[in-house]
Amino acid sequence: EQFAYVASLQPCQPKASELKGGKFPTRMQGKWLRSFHEDHYYKKIPTGEFVKRNWLSYSPSQDKVYCIVCKQFGKEDSKSYQLARFGSNDWNHISLKLKSHESNSSHLESEIRRAMF
C-alpha cells in the first residue's frame, strides 16, 4: 500500500521562481557557470511539440535530477539505474544524458512496469 502511494506521486519539478533566490543553483563546470533549467522537464518530439518528461525529478536539496520511474520500477543492475540511484548534475551534458536515458531499453522496461502496476 505504501509503495502504491509512492508510485502514484508526481515528480518534483519546481520552477526557478519557486526556489530560494528565484533561480536554480549554479556551479562551475570547466570554465563555465552552469545550472539546471526547467526546459529539461520537456522533450521536443519530431512534430515540434513539447512533451513533459513525467519521469524526471529535480531535487533542490541535492541540485540533481533523478529518474523516479527507474528508482521505483527499475532493476539495480541495469544501466539506467545510475540516474535513479545517484542522479546527475552534469549540466554541461544533461541534454544528451536525458535523451540517452529515455531511449534506453532498461528505462523503457521500467516505464512498462509502472504502467502495469
TrEMBL record:
It comes from Schizaphis graminum. This is Zinc finger MYM-type protein 5. It comes from the Eukaryota.
